[in-house]
Amino acid sequence: MEAVLTSAVAVVGILLGGCFSYLVQHRMTIRNERFARWRFVQEERMAAYSAYAAALAHCRRGELDRWHRAHENPGSAEATEARVESYRLRSVARQELFRLRLVAQSPGLVRLAEEALDRVSVIHKAEDEQECHRSGDAAREAVEAFVQAAGQQIVS
């Protein structure tokens, strides 16, 4: 009788140990999946934010180039080419903005991103060189504000 009781206790111990091991492994799997998902989202955000910032920098350069070509030699082939290039760069920036909207968790960050694009997009409308520089500086500051906020979101 004692052998049966010992065997029964051993079997129950093995079953409880197996159940406990299963539960621990299951929790670890869930935790690992959550971490992997979080990391994937963070990487997507980092890629979207940095691609958008780069697109804004290129767009800003294109807008400044457009303004200078239009004022140096209005109606020239170079001015037309700079205008077309500024449209292309603005389109790329818009595409990156759409991507950013898909992964951003903060409406405030999206507003900063949109404001930066708005500031960049009006550089070519400056009346004189001083206004062009002011507009370019304002655009750069808006891009920096976006990058700063995006960096804080990535870190937290």
Question: Secondary-structure map with pairings?
Answer:
Layout (H helix, E strand, L loop, with lengths): L1 H71 L4 H27 L3 H15 L7 H27 L1
Helix pairs in contact: 1-2, 1-3, 1-4, 2-3, 3-4
Please give a structural write-up.
The protein is built from 4 helices and no strands. By secondary structure, it is mostly helical. Helix 1 packs antiparallel against helix 2, helix 1 runs antiparallel to helix 4 and helix 3 runs antiparallel to helix 4. The chain has a single domain, classed as de novo design (two linked rop proteins) (Up-down Bundle), CATH 1.20.1440. The longest helix has 71 residues.
Instruction: Label the CATH architecture.
Output: Up-down Bundle
Quote the beta fraction.
Answer: under 5%
Distance between the termini: 62 Å
Q: What is the number of strand segments?
A: 0
CATH topology: de novo design (two linked rop proteins)
Stretches where pLDDT is under 50 for at least 5 consecutive residues are none
Question: What is the radius of gyration?
Answer: 28 Å
Structural class by secondary-structure content: mainly alpha
